[in-house]
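Notes taken during the Thursday session

The instructor put the following on the board and asked us to keep it in front of us for the whole hour. The protein is dolichyl-phosphate-mannose--protein mannosyltransferase. We were told not to look anything up and to reason only from what is written here. First, the residues (758 in total):
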Amino acid sequence: QIFNQHNAEAPNFEQVFYRMAQMEPNLDHDVSWFLLPSYWAKMVVGLISFLCFANSYDGDFVFDDSEAIINNKDLRAETPLGDLWYHDFWGSKLSSNTSHKSYRPLTVLTFRMNYLFAGGFYPVGFHVINIILHCTISVLMVDVFSILLGGLQFSNKGRRLNLAPKSSLLAALLFAVHPVHTECVAGIVGRADLLCALFFLLSFLGYCKAFRENKEGHTFSVFWVLVSVALGAIAMLCKEQGITILGLNAVFDALVINKINLLELIRKLLYKDKSLENAGLLRKGLLFRITLLMCGGAGILYIRWRIMGTGPPAFTEVDNPASFADSLFVRAINYNYYYSLNAWLLLCPWWLCFDWSMGCIPLIKSVSDWRIIALAALWFCLIGLICQALCSEDSHKRRILTLGLGFLIIPFLPASNLFFRVGFVVAERVIYLPSIGYCILFTYGFSLLSKQAKKKKILAVAVLGILLINVMRCALRSSQWRSEEQLFRSALSVCPLNAKVHYNVGKNLADKGNQSAAIKYYREAVRLNPKYVHAMNNLGNILKERNELHEAEELLSLAVQIQPDFAAAWMNLGIVQNSLRRFEEAEQSYWTAIKHRRKYPDCYYNLGRLYADLNRHIDALNAWRNATVLKPEHSLAWNNMIILLDNTGNLAQAEAVGREALELIPNDHSLMFSLANVLGKSQKYKESEALFLKAIKANPNAASYHGNLAVLYHRWGNLDLAKKHYEVSLKLDPMAPGTKENYNLLRRKLEQLQKKGG
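Then, after some discussion, the predicted structure tokens were revealed:
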């Protein structure tokens, strides 16, 4: 049932306060919507927000989750907790030139707790926390919207009154089910935005508590103002946008607490009116509170700046092409176009994409581009809203519009490119907080329509329809975020010009072994972005494995020409050159890769293989030793050292290396096998047998394991066991080299023994 009437009268004094407050204009007079008690409203909002994203709970780690979580050493117990305060969100040192300077230690700390409690990288726990956070934030929005839409009023008992229960419920539902939030909830790295939003809202609610009159009769509490500043600092330590709450608290204080008319204030400032004090600046301690907020914000930013360092983050042109444009006009017009796209995602969140960079949105280079219309529409709406917020004679309208615009624009400022270059074109996650302002403006617009509409129920049904469509869109989008394959493929129809989309689809296919399909998408990525070195590198790798060496060399040579410090491409170029038997060039490529990435164990491993092919055994052993020093669990490097020492007759040294390797990687069956071979040649049959059996237990289908154990038994004189394992080896691999000959020799020997015995 849709209610239009107000709360029934009650005899208690608190209801008298409520009725007196409602004599002032508020949205609920005109909004045709459900009226629920506060706790029921919060339960409904929490339940619906849960239903929107519940199907993402068992999704995989996708997209940026790999770098921020799986490859982030800051999550592991061996990394000191103190390091979190000097590393960026991705685990790199903030002082590094390659750091993105995204300083979010508290978010990383929650990832670390997830990892430790789960005992590993199990995505379910990470996803569940994200869903719970969004539900909690959505529930808090009921209180936040009740203040923003209905004003801040307390009863004589100090209890805050909800003067807009219907409007706040509608706005909270709009926020809870907005599909643009899917990236933050279903993508695990979106936790930064969720935690930031949580403490952002707590800071706002804490600031509101400062105005609850205490027993001493003071009009505000300095303690709660300071708590609000502290919560703002915590929000910023979760994500950079959190600091903007201090500015919004100041705006709220001026508009709601002090009821300042901004236009009147501007006029008095311009004309130096002596009655400036009466405008509200010095009343009720406003200047003192704003000073506290400004000092707190400045202190927080200074500390963060000192920790982060003075160098700006390093981004490339493909991340944010407009910011690299030489023309100020081109930069300005494209930034504004990006703003219009963000606004459109709030209004119509149907075309959603995990990444909007790399050609997804071509640059506007001329005023003749039809997309200029989007800029004009955006500024037409904004200027109209700003004029109404400043010039309307209705103080209630001025307050709501200004707060709506404030919450829409101020949290977006860090992502606007106005103060510093950002590493994206459009990012759905950054409009999680600005969507609060959108929900305020939508609800206010709905109230105006309700006031004019004759059939209010039809209008309410239409809004219910929008909410239902958004719920279904959230569920669909959440399911797309469950796996990389679905996520990447969903972007093909939204951003077909985005080279990164094609690259990620190709990488996903290559990881699953579908190289032919992967080649197609990698080629398209290179076509769309001829300087996409990562696509060239991956395509070159696949072509190398398919023995298409000359094209692979061309691609990898082009990649290192475009990006001379691309260490992985130099190493892969060296592998191709080695396969083409151009050994000097291969060696030079390997050393160039190591020059650009000093700690590169895989490159040392491949360099060792080159030296082994050239019979430069000492150099090969040194290269493999470097690989194991840099990466002690590098099984291939250990194995090659053991095999080379074995083949060159250095059995004692091979045994020592094998034992050292097994101490570091005790469950590696290939190392057990290699060391067992060495021990067998050293006539340490019992120990060799034990290692062979352990290796076979770990990998029972390896024909060579059974074959070499049979050779050991053959030498040892355990002919029946030798016969058994020869037969197992031949059953697993009838073409196993040498095994058939050894088996035939054993059979002849057994036949001779039987004849002698007969």
